Amino acid sequence: MKPIVNTDHLYEVISHVQDYQNSDWDTFKKAYELSQLSMTNKNELNSLKYLPNLELLPHQREAVEKVIFHMHGRAILADEVGLGKTIEAGVILKELMIKGLVKKVLILVPSSLIRQWESEMNYTFFIPARAKHRSYPWEVYDIVISSIDLAKKEPHASTLIEQEFDLLIVDEAHRLKNADTKNYQFVKQLKSTYCLLLTATPIQNKIDEVYHLMKIVRPGLLGDKRIFKEKVKKSSYDTIQTLIKQSMVRSRKSDVQDPWATREIKTIQVDFTEEEQHVYDALQQLETSHALTNLTLSREFCSSREACYLSMKKQENLKESHIIELIEQLPNHAKALKTMDLIKEIDDKVIIFTEYKSSQLYLQWLCQQNGISAVPYNGDFRKSKKQWMLQLFQNNAKVLIATDAGAEGLNLQFCKNMIHYDLPWNPMKLEQRIGRIHRFGQKDTVNIFYVVLNNTMDERILNLLYDKLSVFEGVIGEIDQILSSFGANSFEEEITDIIQESHSTKEAEIKIDNLMSVIQSESENSEGELKDETS
Amino acid sequence: MKQAEIHGFLYEFFDHRQASILENHDGLLTVKLTRELDQQLMNRPFYWQYINTMGYEGEPMTVTYKSKEGVEADGEWIHFGSPRLQQIFNVIQEEGRYTTLYENISENTKRTPLYPWFVCNLQVKYRGWYIHDEMVSIGILLTNGTMRFNWIDENIDQHFVQHVPDYAYKIPYIISPERSIEHLTKELSNRIEQESTSFSEKSIELYNQELNMLDELTELHTEEDQQFYDQSKEQIYERLYPKVEVNWINGGLFYLTQERTRQLTTSQ
Predict the structure, then answer these.
(1) Domains along the sequence of chain A with CATH
(2) Tens digit of pLDDT for each residue in A223-267?
(3) What is the superkingdom listed in this entry's lineage (chain B) (predicted)?
(4) A406 near A380, Cβ under 8 Å?
(5) CA atoms within 13 A on the CB side of B64
(6) How distant is the Cα of A203 from the closest Cα of chain B, in angstroms?
(7) Are A78 and A248 in contact (CB under 8 A)?
(8) Tens digit of each residue's pLDDT (9 = 90 or more) over B202-228
(9) Of A24, A126, A128, the CB nearest to B162
(10) CA neighbor of B65 nearest in space, from B112, B117, B116, B22
(11) Contact at CB, A10 and B181, closer than 8 angstroms
């Protein structure tokens, strides 16, 4: 068997000899020696010597080596949040460039992350990547960063599909998990020799979502869709995992030796005022078409009057309810006031997370009333506004009030304090939030605050769920797929069902304990498999 | 290249190209560029286009480069991997791409013939199962076609000059450089094929394995499916099929004395 030997370049140079000036011996020798420096060696990462200021952590180095040497440049990078997927992708890109294999690169990221990618590629990796500008056509860029939302639109999509890229990088690739979406169809059509999909949540809900991601990265690895589905039914979760691992790198925080700052977790307890408690109780008794509504309204009311009020106003059968009047008369919200006190006590920058945009607005107004400089951040903001808000937070403001949507991928290591104004019901969401500040590079202790209203849904969730969070250590990103392998709903849906259907706290507690033990035993099984495989 | 070597390297680079060195301390170098260096390094084509059109002198820039930690001065930090250093490398590699040189026989008093060697320094890049570069230097004596591997390493300590030394004369070549390239690629290809059997076998094994997996996808109903199949095949071929690319680094004509030529053709 013979390789294809291509000597075209020699003939090309020889036919243009007359265009070259004769160099002196010294320069000739130097040119030769410099070329020797740039020769790459088969079992070595050659890019690292070009990046003297970058210190790869062991798991990052391992990931890069796996992708380059074993996966031959096509992979899903699925490290848990905060472990440095962007760094891994940057080194892989750099390595492929230095090896002379990659010149044309398309990087698709959420629009909020474009600037961050651009500056990271340029300053950390000295890779001249540019954000797509509307005045220039795609063809002029060698390495271009864009949002998938822009790229998939015409006329961009057709232009991009025509081009042949050497490397395609898609960040937050869980946005591609659904094969019927335009996102997926578009990315699938892009022609690229090498390919990296980055996601912290590779299989959020159903195991066959990974099938579609894998089809882009390594078509055929999981076989035909029908065959794969049957395989999933017959074989265990772990057999599929083993197969997937051939083209997926995944480090978990719990596996990675922890040179990290520690987390200090504090729970701040607040009581509703009498009037507020009255409204809350009334909400419990409220006649609604569905029990779920009571639950939702109670949760909202635990966050702010506004959140609950707006959602009642939207519903035909509730908008005339007497409770609305009661809410209107409330002067403020005990939890928000307590939060203001807490912020004042913290002599440093703080991030507040809330689930509701109306609470976000209220908190911002309240901060202003209290003379605290605060900026909002949510998924609806335009790219430039997001950038600006972050800059304000870093340089001027004390507080960033964020919603979960829009905060993904943010790197806010300069902040050490986080207040969970509402408690998310999915531990993964909580982890995503904390990952914004508690990530590699954070050297200080990170302070996490839960603000909880006594005798409410808040407290129930705290007791039922948060005391047992350690169960999830190491599987936080996989809770949902573990559940789905049992045919269960997502974690949040399961919790909602349990709380809604249980007649007593005791009952809810038992049900949640059951749910957790299922996750725990399944995660222990797969840990066991993992170890077998590596030994 | 170590960080400590960078200062000396930069100094030599600018000094060699007649730039005025304004400041030269350990790790700190301030240089007034020449017109040519400014155009090569400073990336301001519009300025120079304007200057040239207007027939002005132009004012080349003064630059300061730092290459040692702790140096207190405003200046650009230069390290291995920094774009500026890469740019300077590129200037050297571009300038040093081709040459015609003569063995330096400075104290020569009698008529001396110089024999033509065509020298190619090549990068051989393997791509497939692994990616690996090799440097190959081949000299061909253009009077009889003798081929010498590792030519550059054998001659790196010699002295060469750009003009024919006094009393020396060039023996005309019998084989043209263009012809010699044909011999050379044939010989090189043979060697590569012989030496890379395990690389080829392993690469083709991987290639076939991926192709077979791809073929298991049966849903090829639409034109889009077909397109996806084709582009996947292409991508697999690009990455895994064993390929060796031979690239020109630098080379040219070297005229050597009979004695030196004999040393090279007889020694092993």
Answers:
(1) 54-249 (3.40.50.10810), 263-464 (3.40.50.300)
(2) 777 777 777 777 776 777 788 888 988 887 767 755 556 778 888
(3) Bacteria
(4) yes
(5) 13
(6) 22
(7) yes
(8) 999 999 999 998 887 766 677 778 888
(9) A24
(10) B22
(11) yes
